[in-house]
Amino acid sequence: MAINEAATSKLPFWKRTPVVGLVLWLIVVPAALAALGAWQIQRSATVLANTEILANELPQTLEKVRDIAANEPMAMLQFGAGNDMRSMPATMALAQIENAVASINTDLQVARVRAPMAWGTVIGSLLSLVAALLGLIAATVAGLRAKRSRDQLILSFERLRVILPFLLAAVIAGFSVAIFCGTLFESLSLWFWERVSGNGIKLVVGSVVLACIAIYGAFTAVLGLRQVFSLFTPEPMEVQARIVTETEAPGLWRFVRELGRRQDALVPDTIIVGLTDGFYVTEAPVHVMPEDRLLSGRTLHLPAPHLELLDTSEVAAIVGHELAHFTGDDTSYSTRFAPIYAGLWRALNALQLAKGGGLVVEPALRLGFHAAGRLDVAVAHWSRLREFEADKKGSLVSGPKGAASALIRTSITTPAVHFSLNNAFERPEASDANLVAAMAELVRQKGLPDPAEHLEDRQPHPTDSHPPTSQRIAALGVTLDDTLLARATRMPDGDQPSFGKKGFRDWEAFCATLGADFLGEARQFQTQYQQDLETAAAAVVEDEVIIYDNTKGMIVVMAISAALFVGVAVAVFVMASQIYLGDARILVAGFAFLIGLAFAFYAYKLSRRFDAPLMVLTRDTLISPRLDAPIAWTDVATYGVYAVQRFSLVLVLHPNAPLPKTRRWSLYTKVKRKKRTVTLDAFGIRGMKPGDFSDLVGRYLQAAYARRELEAKSIEAA
């Protein structure tokens, strides 16, 4: 616990406290944008009024100055008042006023366009703020009501599912409009500051481009949200199992019907038995493979391994627990609730995919995850109560100790089940079809683990979650004594028929069918996997590929820059008298010459690097002259190629992999030990685009891992 707290304490406070980020993005930032918009309204009104006054007065002033300049060209005219008073000849004043009159109409149009932009900033930020507040209120109210009852949980979040996508879209739209209008307003303000030099136009165009990028990101996000407005149709559950008819397992069906009668619970319409999943019931559609049948109605799934390893009372406790979910509309509750839960997360996934919108998407993401968090709290509350209630009902048919023994035994036999399945999946050709019998034999030979190590385990379920085993046993009021532990950890008795043998006409044949299905799928996967490995390994045929830094463009730029500065130095020295530099000519010329010399020296250094390899990709390693040791491809966990400001290849090495050292200091080529990264920089890759180079590195990386896997398989086979 101390380790987690120490790690958490290193995080920024806004990450340690999600509420801070929530308030910041949903309330503080929109409020700040609204305040900025109000200030922009005030500024735009002032500028517009002054510009309109100038538009009315300048033509009259122009006529007066024109008359004066015609009669007395050198007459001194005064403009302004107080400290801003300026004097200039009439001819000069005439030229400046004529320029001002020529541009005043454009100034007036710009001033008029800025006013709606300021209002757009206010309206957009208020829309985002109001939508965010409504979303917070709706999520909070739904979370509080959802704890009252299961019906309230469904009702509250059905409403939230309808409202939330619109609120998320409103937050995105409002935030993006506020940023777009605020950015354009401030960029148009540059027109009045930089109009003479022309830089104002460039800055305005740049700001418009950035604002349009933000709007495009928001538009993409809203399009992604459009998916959540469609009705949600649950996809059928894909299950690897076999349908069990009453002819195949008359004892099992009698057993289940008797449990249903004793619990006053509905019995399943279909029973399926598989190898890889646990005990569960569902009313959702189920697609059973490999029989390729679609089931509807009430379905009970039973795991064949546990039908072999648990006794009758333990199976009764667990099946009784599952049948209890058929009472009180428990499974219909799950079926009705699934679309709400999936719909909300689909909205968040759409937002995540649209994260290219950047800042404009962040507030909506915060709101969506907050609403999902409120939902999860309510779901966990009712899920916990549902499981405890079902445990009590299941214990009525087997006794509390039988139910507790079943919980412990399923937890401690699961590792043997997983080991057997994993071993068979990796070596299907060497495995017997009756995997269930192999699991029981493994338990007899190796024993069972300490139950104390598995008391915090949770029983697997495809759609719901279970509380830890220790809490479920405590809720049953059972003490973990030696008698209970001895019963739960007993070895399979080969002389006594298992529950599966009692319930099925031919248990061994049925288990062999399940095993054959599993092994057939494993063989198909292993064949495809082998082909993929061979394809990846064969993708690299060259012994080595030499990569060169694309320094040619920078050499040309440096050479031109050097020539320009040397030319400036010569011109200053030669024409010093004409440009009135006097004795300063030596200092200015010398400074320009030194800069040109520095550019020339850098161009020379780059030319020396022109034919030197940047890196060499071999079948097994990446070699760089900048590193003191090669990097084995199999030491690389992942990589990235970046080409934004500078071109760079970033390699992330495995925790135990050796880290090389840089041969010389470099501003960009770095080895970071804490992050386990190696960064190799360049101006670019000669003759190759960044995407092509990234594909090349990925091909070498995958080929190395594929060869290692093939070698391991070859040794293992031998």
TrEMBL record:
KW Membrane (keyword) present: yes
Subcellular location: Cell membrane
Membrane-crossing segments per the record: 19-41, 117-141, 162-185, 205-225, 555-580, 586-604
Domain of life: Bacteria
Membrane disposition: Multi-pass membrane protein
Keywords: Cell membrane, Hydrolase, Membrane, Metal-binding, Metalloprotease, Protease, Transmembrane, Transmembrane helix, Zinc
PANTHER family: PROTEASE HTPX
Protein name as annotated: M48 family metalloprotease
Species of provenance: Tianweitania aestuarii
Taxonomic lineage of the native organism: Bacteria, Pseudomonadati, Pseudomonadota, Alphaproteobacteria, Hyphomicrobiales
